[in-house]
Amino acid sequence: MPDLDRHRDWLIESQRDLEIQDFIFPEILDGDLEGFCRDAKARLDGFTGRLGIHGPFYNLPLNARDPLIRDVVKRRLWQGLDACEWLGATHMVVHSPYTTWGYNNLDKTPTGREELVEYCHLTMADAVRRAETIGCTLVIENIEDKDPSARVELAKSFESRAVGVSIDTGHAYYAHGTTGAPPVDYFVKLAGKHLAHVHIQDADGYADRHWPPGAGTLNWRAFFEALAQSETNPRLVLELDDNNRILEGAAWLIAEGLAR
Q1: Distance between CA 236 and CA 18 in Å, rounded?
Q2: How far does Cα 127 stand from its chain's mean position?
Q3: Mean pLDDT across the stretch 21-48?
Q4: Nearest 5°: phi and psi at 209?
Q5: What is the pLDDT of residues 115-124, one digit of tens each?
Q6: What is the pTM of this model?
Q7: pLDDT per residue over 172-190, tens digit each?
Q8: Which of 24, 119, 212, 218 places its Cα 20 to 30 Å from the Cα of 249?
């Protein structure tokens, strides 16, 4: 929450895209969640930009097969949407169920891919309906995804304006450098009209660094060229390990002519 105060003027001056990430923590979800949202909203007085949250994800697989685990995931998604409704947030990030292991094993059986999608629907159906009602979009973020198109097909399968695709640039770069996924700009091209949200972070292709742009080796020019050709206007959010470096990352993108 102190980060809101620190960057408030910068956020408001151009009404930049904003994502509040505190809702990933169980202690926030199970505490005075409504009071937390009221406090955040008060700190954002004057902010009229696009606002969203990072939804809960710790130990919460969207493709949970066990019904008891699925109930826990559904409850956490519901709490995230409570926060969205209280804040007036219009996107919530959720984590992709696709893994490196899955890339090599989903096609081992004739129904592997269909079962994963079916379990995701069982987990997410209520949340998707509620998101439609409150004007929020669940954006599915790549984590280990080696095949960018699989997550896009999952989003499409809901046939809902309340489900879209998120790209985390550092995750995509990790997958490219470590598991043989396509380059980061390909993730943009394959997302097409379903791209709704981007986490911007730099990395080295080996780990999930969350460095400011310019501190790693990601090909930002190729990424932003692909973004310029996108059919959508996705939210762009700097997601860094050190929020004190947000202005540094933004300044680097501006100096390179990639952002305003």
Answers
A1: 8
A2: 16
A3: 97
A4: -75, -40
A5: 999 999 999 9
A6: 0.97
A7: 999 999 999 999 999 999 9
A8: 24
Q: Are 203 and 164 in contact (CB under 8 A)?
A: no
Instruction: Tell me the sheet residues that pair with 170.
Output: none
β strands within the chain, DSSP E: 18-20, 51-54, 91-95, 137-141, 163-168, 195-200, 235-238
Question: Whose structure tokens read 């094993």?
Answer: 105
Question: Side by side, which strands form the sheet with 18-20?
Answer: 18-20, 51-54, 91-95, 137-141, 163-168, 195-200, 235-238
Taking phi first (over 0 means left), then psi (-120 to 50 degrees means alpha), and beta for anything else, what does residue 244 get? alpha
- Greater model confidence, 176 or 2: 176
**Crossing angle for the helix pair 33-43 and 2-13, to the nearest 10 degrees:** 40
Residues for the chain: how many in total? 260
Mapping DSSP to helix (H, G, I), strand (E, B) and coil, where does residue 70 land? helix
* 212: number of Cβ within 10 Å: 24
Task: Count H helices and E strands in the chain, helices first.
Answer: 11, 7
- Can you state the angle between helices 148-157 and 112-134, rounded to 10 degrees? 60
CA distance 19 to 234: 13
* CA–CA gap between residue 134 and residue 159 (Å, rounded): 17
Mean per-residue pLDDT over the chain, rounded? 97
Q: For 70-107, write each residue's pLDDT tens digit.
A: 999 999 999 999 999 999 999 999 999 999 999 999 99
Tokens of 122: 């069982």
Phi, psi of 180 (to 5 degrees): 85, 20
pLDDT at position 18, please?
98
